[in-house]
Amino acid sequence: MTPARPGDAYVQSFARGLSVIRVFNARRSAMTLTEVAEAAGLTRAGARRILLTLVQLGYVSNDGRLFRLTPRILELGFAYLSSMPFWDLAEPVMETLAAEVHQSCSATVLDGTDIVYVLRVPAGRNMSVNLGVGSRLPAYCSAMGRVLLADLDDAALDDALRRSDLAAHTPLTLTDPARLKEVIAQVRRQGWALVDRELETGLVAISAPIRDHGGRTIAALNLSGQAHLITAEQMRERLLPPLLAAAERINGLMRRQ
User: Fold this and answer.
1) Which CATH number fits domain 12-75: 2.40.50.140, 3.30.70.1270, 1.10.10.10, 3.40.718.10?
2) E strands along the chain, which residues?
3) Which of 52, 120, 219, 257 keeps 20 to 30 A from 81, CA to CA?
4) How far is CA 188 from CA 39, 63, 185, 196, 208, in A?
5) What is the CATH number of domain 84-255?
6) pTM score, two decimals?
7) pLDDT, tens only, 16-45
8) How far is 243 from 240, CA to CA, in rounded Å?
């Protein structure tokens, strides 16, 4: 797919600054100037100007050789989280739900072809990866992702699947676009999604939508568990009712805002 060309309103220097911020992650928490430039696809001179600007603004620190993000970078993410209408409403409901069913509870939003975690109440460790606010996972093979994709119209769904890297994360992962569209259409009809060991071997998850005043899905509420402790069928029978009830409580609180 050919990327769209930047328009007249595109500020290239700002885009490059964001690209520098994004190269820092758990595997690359501290980098030299050369490493940042290579990871961001910039010249050393360009990377240096951006890094020194970020240092002056307090978003990056430098000990003379290595550059690191500072805690101030969290302002950028929490500005988004604090603007979300269901942030304060959903968290106590999720804590109650997780305590009731003894499973991890999460809320995510859709960003392109990924889901992004915006709230999480863990109950033990269900996944091999360490998930927290800001973590990303592919939408097509996750329960939350399918709930969020189900709210797209057919054209937008086709585009999202076309742009997705439909890799098989486990032997059970659905990767055929036509089959995925059928499954997502079923999610749209029934109002919830169940994914059994498609994202990760041993992980089963069930998800329901969180909707705004107009009925648009703005987030997905999820319960996840370990397949050797709870089967997909047991999750549907035991956990779907309290999950749907919790989602409706959040939706009701949203309607009263």
Assistant:
1) 1.10.10.10
2) 30-31, 60-62, 67-69, 104-111, 114-121, 136-138, 193-196, 203-211, 217-226
3) 52
4) 40, 52, 5, 18, 10
5) 3.30.450.40
6) 0.76
7) 888 999 898 878 889 999 999 999 999 999
8) 5
